[in-house]
Amino acid sequence: MPTELIQPPFFVYGTLRRGLFNYQKHLEGRTAAEERGRLDGYCLYDAGGLPLVVERTGDSNGVVGELMSVWQDQYEDVLRQLDELEGYDPADPTCIYVRVLATVHSNAGPVSAWLYEAGDTVACELTPDNKVPGGDWVLHQKEIPNLSARSTDVIG
């Protein structure tokens, strides 16, 4: 039987959400609890298929995601895998993602959770054109036209 939870959950908003490929690879079967959450004061961006969140308190539509509470006996392994997946290295200031504690709103109230947000190097290059309306990656992916349907487009 897995042991008691004592670590902060992970707030996932992109490919780590339930049912998506990185969830299946890194989180499925390793969570004690999963619940919807909302990250206020942040915006979600699509950087060419790469989901990125950036703190934007003055211009935020919030970010929809899920809080993933991982069993304590699996926590260090999941943390290591997610840091590797996101390319996070605390010694590298040019990382695409940095891991920070953020306040996420759940049905039970505010929760402190790990968040992989865009590093400064990447965040400064995002434009309003990259912003995901509604802050929901899953809905955004459903709205992206099928690329194979455009394979007959002539360029030039």
- Determine and state the CATH class: Alpha Beta
The CATH topology assignment is Hypothetical upf0131 protein ytfp
Report the sheet with the most strands, covering strand number, pairing sense and barrel closure.
3 strands, antiparallel
The CATH homologous superfamily is named Gamma-glutamyl cyclotransferase-like
Q: Between the first and last Cα atoms, what is the distance in angstroms? A: 61 Å
What is the beta-strand fraction?
A: 25-35%
Q: Name the shape in a single word.
A: globular
State the strand order across the main sheet: 1-5-2
In total, the number of domains comes to 1
Secondary structure: helix percent: 10-25%
Low-confidence stretches: 1-5, 147-156
Main features:
156 residues; alpha+beta; Hypothetical upf0131 protein ytfp; 3-stranded antiparallel β-sheet; two-stranded antiparallel sheet; 7 strands; disordered N terminus; disordered C terminus
Question: Would you kindly provide a written description of the structure presented here, covering whatever features stand out?
Answer:
This protein is 20% helix and 32% strand. With 156 residues, the chain is an alpha+beta fold. The strands form three sheets. A three-stranded antiparallel β-sheet has the order 1-5-2. The chain has a two-stranded antiparallel sheet with strand order 3-4. A two-stranded antiparallel ribbon has the order 6-7. The model is unreliable at 1-5 and 147-156 (pLDDT under 50).
